[in-house]
Amino acid sequence: MTTAQTTELSPKNLSDANERNKRRQGFLMAFPAYAYLLIFFAFPLGIVVVYSFATRNRFGGTDLSDWNFDSYIRLNDEVLRNILFRSFTLALLTTVICLLVAYPFSYFLATRTPTIRNVLLVFVMIPFWSNFLVRNYAWRVLLGSDGPVSRLTELLGLGETRILFTPTAIVLGLVYGFLPFMILPLYASLERLDWSVLEAARDLGATGFQTLRKVTIPLSMPGVIAGSILVFIPSFGAFVTPEILGGGREVLLGSFIVSQFLEARNWPVGAATSTVLMAVMLASALLYFRKGGRTL
Amino acid sequence: MATTKELRGGAKWALSLNAWLVYFFFYAPIALLVVFSFSDDNLVGRWGGFTTRWYGEFLDNDGVQNALGNSIRVAILSTVISVVLGTMAGLSLERYRFRGSRMFDALLYLPVIVPDVTMAVMMLIFFTSLDDLIGLQITRGFSTITLSHIAFSISFVSIVVRARLAGMSETLEEAAQDLYATRWQTFRFVTLPLILPGIIGGALLALTLSLDDVVITQFVSGPGSTTLPVFVFSLIRRGVSPLINAVSVVMLAASAFLVLLSLLAQRSRGGSVT
Amino acid sequence: MTDSGNTTAAVTISGITKRFGDVVAVDNIDLEIADGEFFAMLGPSGCGKTTTLRMIAGLEFPSEGSLKIFGDEVGTLPPNKRPVNTVFQNYALFPHMTVLDNVSFGLRMQSTKKREAASRAQEMLDLVQLGEMSARKPSQLSGGQQQRVALARALVNKPKVLLLDEPLGALDLKLRQEMQTELKSLQRNLGVSFVFVTHDQEEAMAMSDRIAVMNEGKLLQVGPPSEIYERPANRFVADFIGQTNLLDATVEDEDHIILTNGDRLRAPSPHRPGTSVAMSLRPEAISIGERGSTPAEHEATSLVGQVESVTYLGHAIDYVVKIGWIDLEVRGDATAGTRRFSAGDSVSVWWDRTSDWVVAD
Fold first, then answer.
1. Which residues on chain A place their C-beta less than 8 Å from a C-beta of chain C?
2. Which residue out of A122, A130, A150 would a mutagenesis test of the B interface target, given it has the greatest number of B Cβ atoms within 10 Å?
3. Strand pairing partners for C276?
């Protein structure tokens, strides 16, 4: 037991002092970022939740003194229910299509020799890093009424293509935008796969399809989950794609929230919708961290 | 390696067909956009002979130039600040434990997973209430955009730096100290050179994110202070024009350049750090 | 032993304990390492040997106790202020520096002029026969070469004590044996104390002047290899060092013990009658012969049993002899003309009175 009289120089004290020093040093290094995120992220996040319980006043401003659940109750309106449902369906559809396209693609990538694999991967990274807005705009050009796609279908005798400003165009744009988000985690988990396990499965008499279903897919599940979440979350709250390719006709969650702030000026309802979106996102992220890896 | 990796017959054929179709899907729209940016026709998707006049217009258009200038200024300043803060945070979380470090860890991950619409709402309400609650008025524009971009970039930088640090054994730092290096010398001569590729990677990511952002910037920007993506977005909403084609190609070229840089940074990662 | 003599010990550890949270990694150990000694710390992984080494290096600080290097208390001095250097387990060479920069790093950090540091580093590289490799990166070297660089990088600083953490662990068998000899002669030439951590008992035996055996944070025995091998302090040491038969028994009187199968053997021990002990009997110390062929002088240290299995090793034959329910491993002679036994043969086994050793738990 250390007593109050223990000299300053006893190893126990010095060892503790050193630990304390190290902790303080660690804290000081993290402090600027910590403080920044508290002020410019955690605090704003809190205010959004506060606003979601407030009331819109006559002038389009927000009355913070009147607390209620009205905004959340309004989420149950027919209009909003439809918007939520539509956004959910489109996001889900986008995720499924991405998964169906990306799985065989990543499998193909993971089974190439390392040199070829790296080259092929670079050509996935380029769209991944490229400007999302511009990539969506490219489809606007392609799908325009006298754009190249329409011209091609006319040439083939299929008539003019009219998918611009439809949900189909939105899904197309979302898939185009988020496909790399599905490919990269899938590829990462397939590349780590122990291929001798597959040989073992074949050796034990499984057909190619059985091996895929019972071994390959379960083993690559972390990648499937990570990719699905990385595609689903931004699709669910997408704003840019529906604006450019949906022409704002098909109101989705992202556009709805934006309009509550920039046009309708009903901040409490916008804040409540944001809060719900955030809750969905947090739930998915928790699922991801529980089931998948830590990498993003 | 394993032989079952190579599928036979139809499956193998379908697999490579799918792969090439995916690449076609990725690149055909971009390629066509580049082609049409040189088209001498007032319709965005029609070929009307070769011209570079849209690029000339890009250079002459004050709105575009102003937005481009804003974009570059915001991107550079937010990258510099978020790289410094994010690197320090990454180092701290990977090498130290302190009270509250786990909560900080969680806080660092949040901006990565919050949808940009939500983040935009957060920043808008935040800057408004600063005025309402404590009477602090920040002019919407350069400063609000930069502050918001830093808020999401810090997290990405620190994640990339941490990944690099996690792959680097702490023994190297111990070896330096055993060889008479002080804490600062250890950082300067061992830790920093080894995590530099991670820092560069994080910086390029922050730069890209800042140059790409539309939604958050749109919420916190003021009149005359938009960035290029926001400016382009508002142009597209009013109607497409070949000028946008040219601006888009310039933005794509910038992205490709950044990818190239990040690949070079990756290559310089050198031997395995164990 | 105290350092009251006229020579000061290189390292003096008194009452050192190290806790990580609730885990006691090193539990109140006392240890003295003499100047110029080749000292090994031996034990299974997690026994606290590496933690002890790291405390000497300054990479961990003791929770309690005192640690002196040549009489100076260093308990909580940071590693860069101690006159010791370390060869790390996986060498920890700086991957971004050339071999020469790696070796001159320590000198540069002590403000040696660049040119002088480079020339001394080059000399040291020549000494470990890597003079040609100075411009290479560590990743371009073989494991054995990396190990020499690590050694040069530590020795160029002329440490008062060199610490080595499983330095040969990553090398293959042949290279390891070469390096053992080399390390030993290097140490003799330099006259510096080497403190060497290993889990390989043969390595420890082959190289060290003295060995400290540790387990679960406790220091079990310190002594020269022969003492540790022949006079283990307890059951763990006997079992850990070399191959041995440990026969459970109870002390009958000061000269005899009774095995669990009822056989009574002559085996002097200092333990009180009734204490449960084990008798350590090395397989190579046991002789085997036809039943009843025990020489008269070994009657008191002889047992009768049946051969259970035979393993032919070329230079020797390993028998397992069943004595009641006790399995006894016996290493038999395989030279031509020696009687060989097969499974099922009835045999007598005996040994010299001085080659058994009774240990308490």
1. 11-12, 14-15, 18
2. A130
3. C250
CB C220 within 8 A of CB C233: yes
- Is C6 among the domain residues? no
> Domain tally for chain B?
1
* Interface probe with A: pick from B97, B98, B162, most Cβ of A within 10 Å: B98
Strands C286-290 and C346-351: antiparallel
In DSSP terms, which residues pair with C32 in a beta bridge? C12
Burial A274-287 (b: 16+ CB within 10 A, else e): bbbbbebbeebbee
- Tell me which chain B residues have a C-beta less than 8 angstroms from the C-beta of A261: 121, 124, 219
Using the Cβ of A47 and the Cβ atoms of chain B, whether some distance falls under 8 Å is answered with yes
Chain A residues within 8 A of C67 when measuring between CB atoms: 11
Q: Which residues of C90-112 are buried (b: 16+ CB within 10 A; e: fewer)?
A: bbbbbbbbbbbbbbbbbbbbeeb
CB distance A256 to A74 below 8 Å: no
Look-up of token digits 């502050």: B147
Whether B89 and B158 have beta carbons less than 8 Å apart is answered as yes
- Determine, yes or no, domain membership for C1: no
pLDDT tier, B273 (very low <50, low <70, confident <90, very high otherwise):
very low
Identify whether residues C129 and C30 lie together within a single domain: yes
**Is there a single domain that holds both residue C116 and residue C255?**
no
Q: What are phi and psi of C129, to 5 degrees?
A: 60, 35
The answer to whether the Cβ–Cβ distance between A278 and B100 falls below 8 Å is: no
pLDDT digit string, tens, across residues B186-232: 999 999 999 998 899 899 989 999 999 999 999 999 887 889 999 99
Residue A258 forms contact with B (CB below 8 Å): yes
| Domain total in chain C | 2
| Beta sheet of C276-281, edge-to-edge order | C264-266, C256-259, C245-253, C276-281, C356-360
A194 confidence band (pLDDT: 50, 70, 90): confident
Residue-wise pLDDT tens digits, A249-275: 668 889 899 888 888 778 898 999 999
Residue in C80, C85, C88 nearest the CB of B181:
C80
Q: In degrees rounded to 5, what are phi and psi of residue C315?
A: -85, -10
Size of interface A-B (CB pairs under 8 A): 274
Contact list in A for residue C59 (CB cut-off 8 A) is none
CATH assignment of the domain containing B245: 1.10.3720.10
B19 contacts on A by Cβ (under 8 Å): 104-105, 108-109, 120
Assign residue B100 a region (left: φ > 0; alpha: ψ between -120 and 50; beta: otherwise): left
What lies within 8 Å, CB to CB, of B29 at 6+ separation is: A135, A138, A139, A141, A142, A176
Q: How many CB pairs under 8 A join A and C?
A: 21
| Closest Cα in chain B to A33 | B85
Which residue matches tokens 């006709």? A249
Neighbouring chains of C at 3+ CB pairs under 8 Å are A, B
B18, B95, B121, B182, best to mutate vs chain A, most A CBs in 10 Å: B121
A11 contacts on C by Cβ (under 8 Å): 61-67, 75-76
> What range defines the domain where residue B254 resides?
52-158+205-267
Give contacts of C 86-125 with B, CB under 8 A.
86, 88-90, 92-96, 105-106, 109-110
Same structural domain, C256 and C188 = no
What value of ipTM does the predicted structure carry? 0.88
Ranges assigned E (strand) in chain A: 55-56, 62-63
pLDDT at A292: 52
Pairing of strands C193-198, C161-165: parallel
Q: Which CATH superfamily is domain A75-291 in?
A: MetI-like (1.10.3720.10)
In whole angstroms, what is the distance from residue C359 CA to residue C361 CA? 7
